[in-house]
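Read as chain and fold; for instance:
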Amino acid sequence: MPDPQVLPFSLDQFGASDHRLPLIYMRERRRELVLELQAAGPAVSMQKIRDIAAVQQAIKAIETVIAE
């Protein structure tokens, strides 16, 4: 089951005036997940890898929307 903390944002939380804030949040979340993965050492959790992949996909989607 996916970690419910992976994508816990809404535009209301950041305000609709700055569309880049969700991107910043997602990048910070990805960084946190990668640090957690590194701290786990050789016991790499497949769920953590999936969580990082999901955040990365969200980052790419946000970047695509911003670029358009």
Q: What stands out?
A: DSSP finds three helices and no strands in the chain. Residues 23 and 61 are 9 Å apart (CA to CA). Residues 20-67 form one domain. Confidence is low (pLDDT under 50) at residues 7-12.
